[in-house]
């Protein structure tokens, strides 16, 4: 396969975004595809855009930074070299979505370069080395200058070959995305069951009918100031849990080559596990710091700066069954020790709005919020009977296992996609042209 070399500026238009995460009166409402949306996704779709944050922009910014199908976005500025130059493909057209700051928008000339191919090319080691050698800055911030981006060396086969390669890799990504949607649906099922059984109190009664809706006895609880099913206990968190804080670490101990470390980046904003957020810890740890599948971990810290913040403090999830060896957690995370049947119940309780409101009221700090466990552990909650907790646990563990299988499948698909990249780019592997049809 013959490759021709171009400078990026000769085959694409490049726009540097300065669109801030603010809403200003008089500006046009928009949604933002931000740094994290570019960083964590091979492609940006309409489905992903549902979760984009809202902001506002001037018309000049809208004209300059609106994203559309066929474009490519890259991260431009970050605290570490490894986080810049990460690309994503814009897979759909949008009416009101702009690329946020710290990113650059690349609009390919479709007669010369295919956007899907260009996105794949940006993920090759060839380009990563270019960014490593040409990134400016040190210490607190690294950036790609406009000249560095304009001069990116792009190797192109024929446009037909680009279409074929781009589509193959995009198809793999679509399968990965479909798997993620399946896991999202499984998580939604789990939350719906929790709400149905433990918020609406319509768990199955002895006849298999919804308890409260079928006239099940409810009693007023003075501690909670609300009605709960007859026979349920009320306790404080400190009566049923113990906590074990994770490992304090320095930069040198997370430089790679160690064991997986659960940290703040492992939490989605809904409190579920985020499989792209792991660190690798190569320091020392004791037996008591080791996590196992289905252990319950809770976030005890939250950054408040807009650029980094996620509303995750006090939220918890069950460790998925995806690890072969030891797992540990950072000091921003606490392992919750309690009865096995209580873990899934507490995990989904922690992600309710009522519980989260209480947890955030137990925090202090300016740039970093920390959870005060003395006040947090005084939270009062109703405890369902053991048989119901066991039924819920069995259902949730089954969902966690299913989600874990899908996470592992996605890891394998991602590995295959990444290994195909250099082989396709240098002609060591080829794809039948009929696969290039959309």
Protein model, in words:
The chain is an alpha+beta fold. The chain has twelve helices and 27 strands. The two termini are 22 Å apart. Helix content is 33%, strand content 23%. The chain has a five-stranded mixed β-sheet with strand order 2-10-6-8-4. The chain is elongated.
Largest sheet, strands/sense/barrel: 5 strands, mixed
How confident is the prediction overall: mean pLDDT? 91
Radius of gyration: 25 Å
Briefly note the structural class of the backbone.
alpha+beta
Instruction: Compute the separation of the termini in Å.
Output: 22 Å
Q: Could you state the oligomeric state of the chains shown?
A: single chain
Low-confidence stretches: 433-438
Query: What's the count of strands?
Result: 27
Strand order within the widest sheet?
2-10-6-8-4
Concise synopsis of the structure shown:
The chain is α+β, with helices and mostly antiparallel strands. It is built from twelve helices and 27 strands. Helix 5 crosses helix 8 (159-199) and helix 8 (159-199) packs antiparallel against helix 12.
